[in-house]
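Protocol step 4 of 6.
Sequence for Polyhydroxybutyrate depolymerase (Zavarzinia aquatilis) entered exactly as in the expression construct, tag removed. Do not edit the line below.
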Amino acid sequence: MRFLLLLVALLASSPALAEGGEYRFTTPDGRSRDYLLSVPAKPGAEPLPLIVVLHGTYGSADKMERHLGFESYVEAYRVAVAYPDAYREPGARRTLRWNDGRGTLASSAAGIDDVAALRALVADIGGRVNLDRRRVFVAGASNGGMMAYRVGCEAADLVAGIAPVIGAVASPIYPGCHPSRPIAVLAINGMADPIVPFAGGTVCADVPKIFCERGEVAGAEASLRRFAEGAGCTGAPLAADLPPTVDDGTRLRRVDYRDCPAGIRVRGLWIAGGGHAWPPLPSQLGQRRAGRSSGNLDATEAIVRFFLTPGDSVP
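Step 5 output, structure tokens:
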């Protein structure tokens, strides 16, 4: 009888597994935000890891869910995947953009605290799903990738790892980017990206301003190195040029920082000839403006396996 009472108490104190769908939460500044949530169809006893996927400029939660393919891993890896919408800017375009730290966006002018918003998001999901709070990860594309870096800089206690794709640490926050604890990082960047320059500098310097906001970013290598140093990785990075699987004008270089704390990996996947795209998908800006994607990497698969099966990650 005592066992049954204990079981009932445990069940009552744990959140029921929510169904996938659209949800709304309130940020600390009182704004409402929407997000899409995908979870395994059948609840299990084990808490679920969570991957939060952040869209880029002109993106949305819906677009990320429909196009990136994280859904195909939800059941096999028993992982929850959330796609939040960013702050909706005023004006005719009503663009959704994260306050990624560049200081040039409407979200910055409005004082939007997206780090606090993402904390509130994880708390809201934790009220609906039995989450493993030790395995919360953030991935993002472009503006979302920059936001993922900002989360790593300012809220390392919230996440076990980040995966910025075609992003970098915004220059204004780079000097103060000192993660409070070691976290895993998988960075994916095109070395010929005309939007977010691989070497750092002005975003969209050679692209008409109508397509994206400016602002300055650190280089891809400098961004990754900041997290390797912050994690206490003492070994020099080990680079390997991987043989191509398709002949599309791109090549993949894998860079792993060595002698990191146990369980922490810091990896860069640099795409020679690659532009501003989530591989292998083409950029929504088109190849003429954004450069080519790469068929030599499935970024979604790489992210899932890097986070959830670290001994069996690809490439």
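Step 6, annotate. The domain at 17-312 is CATH 3.40.50.1820 (Rossmann fold).
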